[in-house]
Amino acid sequence: MPYAAVHAPAATAAARASGLTKVYGAGETRVVALDSVDVEFGRGRFTAIMGPSGSGKSTLMHCMAGLDAITSGSARIGDVELTSLKDRELTRLRRDKVGFVFQAFNLLPTLSAYENMTLPMAIAGRSPDKAWVDRIVRTVGLADRLAHRPAQLSGGQQQRVAVARALASRPEIIFADEPTGNLDSRTGAEILGFLRESVHALEQTVVMVTHDPVAAAYADRVVFLADGRIVDELHAPSAESVLDRMRQFEGRVRTS
Ligand SMILES: Nc1ncnc2c1ncn2[C@@H]1O[C@H](COP(=O)(O)OP(=O)(O)OP(=O)(O)O)[C@@H](O)[C@H]1O
């Protein structure tokens, strides 16, 4: 049975967690990476996740994307409860409903930009929606690079291909983990602009982990994590307001 049919009515959030707890290890090596996190990622919104190193940002992203099993609580993509899925269903959900952009571009070197973009759909046996793919290609400015292999592209162009690949299947949600970490600031700004454009013009949903207040300012909302908990959030952020919040927050941590 298709997984969508098994579950509850449509949710308004593209993804949500409640009481999401992730514990690694046991005994002396036990680490509570996420401690009962409640969070929603609104459909058609761009959310940044920030927090100090080790605060649980990547773990939250991996658990919400179905890349890592959760210890307790609930994680949903749309109306699908991830904990109810078997491995195979989870693989299918990730392929069909989730797009990923990583710091390393993760493109296949022997394939062209276009083939890389449409590879996940080719694997799934689905033919790409040509009008949609054309729109993405125009949005990320790759029209004259589609036949190039990754080695013939700059880092910024390779990341544009990775963004286009994440968008190509019109996923329910795109998770981006430090997508500009390997790029200079001008090229990084371009990629962030494309992510913002994909949310605002193409009505996609993006959740991005970042350390950079300038990158976070491209989002509609910033969620702050510390010690595996959500401790703050900011709407319509600017780089200054994010930095300011981080400073207040560091002050609180130092004095507590
Ligand atoms: N596979 C693992 N096994 C054991 N502990 C882990 C594992 N992955 C993460 N952790 C621990 O969980 C906590 C949260 O890690 P996580 O990588 O989510 O933090 P982060 O906020 O993404 O950090 P950074 O900004 O440095 O990437 C850390 O204490 C980390 O050491």
Question: Could you describe the 3D structure shown?
Answer:
- The protein is of the alpha/beta class.
- It has one domain (44-65, 92-255): Rossmann fold.
- The protein is 37% helix and 25% strand.
- It is built from nine helices and ten strands.
- The chain has helices spanning 3-6, 57-64, 87-97, 113-123, 130-139, 155-168, 185-200, 213-216, 239-255, and strands at 13-24, 31-42, 46-50, 72-77, 80-81, 98-101, 173-177, 206-209, 221-226, 229-235.
- The strands form two sheets. It has a six-stranded mixed sheet with strand order 6-7-8-3-9-10, with helices on both faces.
- Strand 7, helix 7 (185-200) and strand 8 (206-209) form a beta-alpha-beta unit.
- Helix 6 (155-168) runs parallel beside helix 7.
- Residues 1-11 have low confidence and may be disordered.
